[in-house]
Design brief:
By secondary structure, this protein is mainly α. It contains 19 helices and 4 strands. The longest helix has 39 residues.
Length: 511
């Protein structure tokens, strides 16, 4: 008698009389030969000397799964460190602005806003093709770490620029290379974690942005305050030098620590863990519409994504959402409107983002447990709107600082939205990779536009800026409400079809 929840495996000579493993599916318990999940081990091409027969007669699946997740989570923690560095390199110009960055490079008018937005033009161009390349790579760890090392070198060069136009060109190429990381990291998570595990891990990754906003400001204040004038360089130049060098050091480590795909043999996984890692992902495939990649159709997922109207709809919704969160790019500037000096303003940036990071985990975990996505997107956005409204109504220092705490609750909405995207567009790995990259690219376009929401002439109250953020939040929530309604109707149609044909209950879209 084979018990559910147990993993049966036999690596070596396959015998027809060996019991087939059971694993849970949407319609109950299904049979699937375990060795079919281990195509990375080509037994026929290896000799008996280097391929010893291992009998894993009876493995408690839950024990192996806990070990696997523990190892994975440790490596995802390093992925968070990489994202913290990534976000620090994106936003260091905002901190440098408080220490004569604009004056030294002769910026006038909206040139600083252009310098901010040009980074995301590179994102827009690169993210989709980068994820399609990543999908076909065996060693994503080397690809992502190489991109990181390149943007680290370019960041160091940013500290040596003498003109605005040189800085503009470098910022474009930094964005061009950086674009590979975040959608690539999200896709990498989706290749290891199950649907009900993704929300928390995506939140863990995305909290790197909040941690960067909090402690990146503290880090920047230390460099700007202590190294200003050292060796004849301004503090903002040292900021780019130090952060670029730190990026290169972390990139070298990332090549050895970041995980590859489950189908790539890993020295940090035991054989039973490697088998289970791949089988878990096979269990997550939507069986009803399973896609088999055929020769010459490697990029079919990209075509499917480009022709799926829902991806464009969600992409526009997330672009509006990201536009409403553009306050994060100018957070040091908003903190400075309270009247404190540059160092104090940077220090005051930390507490709101620390609270935002903590609540991100709670919201993302609750979304996973309840299986709800939409209301866990809308809730944080409504809190953010409350913060914008409070900032509009007063210039009181205490109340404006409280408004910053409310605003930093809204970014978790984007985290839950990305998880919702991975849950919805999971028919094939290639389509999922394309969907993540396309939607993230469209979301990045929101940053390009919203960089001009915060001109200096609208300060220090920035009433117009906050009103635009409220409008874009409302439009985003409205579009996601329509998307939720569409998915709900799809679930109802699937249920009606199953009842009329007497089919077992299949998979459902999360709402």
């Amino acid at each position: 008698m084979i018990e559910p929840g147990k993993l049966y495996a036999f690596i070596g000579t396959w015998s027809p009389r060996w019991p087939k493993p059971l694993y849970p599916s949407s319609s109950g318990m299904s049979y699937s030969p375990l060795l079919a999940a281990v195509d990375q081990y080509d037994m026929s091409s290896r000799s008996s000397e280097d391929s010893p027969t291992l009998a894993l007669d009876y493995i408690d699946r839950s024990t192996v799964e806990k070990r696997l997740l523990r190892k994975l989570d440790l490596r995802v923690a390093f992925l968070v460190l990489v994202y913290i560095i990534n976000y620090m390199d994106r936003t260091n110009a905002a901190a440098a602005r408080l220490r004569s960055y604009e004056e030294d490079l002769g910026m006038v008018g909206n040139q600083f806003n252009t310098l901010t937005s040009i980074l995301y033009v590179g994102y827009l161009l690169t993210q989709a093709p980068s994820n399609m390349i990543l999908h076909h790579m065996k060693k994503p760890s080397l690809y992502l770490s190489s991109c990181m090392a390149i943007w680290g070198v370019l960041t160091v060069f940013m500290g040596a620029v003498q003109t605005y136009h040189a800085a503009l060109i470098l910022r474009f190429f930094i964005g061009f290379v950086e674009a590979a990381f975040f959608p690539g990291a999200v896709f990498l998570l989706s290749r290891w974690y199950k649907q009900n595990e993704l929300g928390l891990r995506t939140a863990l990754l995305a909290c790197g942005a909040s941690i960067s906003n909090a402690f990146g400001a503290l880090f920047a204040s230390g460099i700007l305050g202590s190294l200003d004038g050292t060796l004849g360089f301004s503090g903002w130049r040292w900021l780019f030098f130090v952060e670029g060098a730190l990026t290169i050091v972390v990139a070298v480590s990332a090549g050895y620590i970041l995980p590859d795909f489950p189908s790539t043999p890993s020295v940090w996984l035991l054989p039973d863990e490697q088998i289970l890692a791949k089988q878990r992902m096979e269990e997550e495939v939507v069986l009803k519409n399973q896609h088999k990649i055929k020769p010459g159709q490697d990029y079919s997922g990209l075509v499917e994504a480009l022709t799926d109207w829902r991806i464009w709809w969600v992409g526009v919704a997330l672009s509006l959402m990201v536009s409403s969160m553009s306050f994060g790019i100018f957070f040091p500037t908003l903190s400075a409107t309270m009247g404190y000096n540059a160092t104090t303003s940077l220090l005051l940036c930390a507490p709101p983002w620390i609270l935002g990071t903590a609540t991100s985990f709670v919201v993302a975990r609750h979304s996973d447990v309840t299986g709800d996505r939409f209301w866990h997107v809308v809730g944080p956005q409504l809190i953010g709107i409350t913060g914008f409204s409070l900032a509009i109504c007063t210039m009181n220092t205490t109340l404006r600082y409280i408004s910053l705490f409310l605003m930093t609750q809204s970014p978790v909405a984007y985290v839950v939205s990305l998880t919702w995207v991975m849950n919805t567009f999971s028919q094939s790995q290639s389509k999922r990779a394309a969907a993540i990259a396309l939607i993230n690219s469209m979301a990045s376009s929101g940053v390009i536009v919203s960089s001009y929401f915060w001109p200096s002439s609208w300060g220090p109250s920035y009433v117009n800026s906050y009103m635009i953020c409220i409008l874009t939040s409302i439009l985003s929530m409205t579009m996601l409400w329509v998307f939720r309604g569409h998915l709900s109707r799809c679930n109802e149609a699937a249920e009606a079809e199953e009842q009329s044909l007497g089919l077992p209950k299949g998979l459902r879209y999360l709402l």
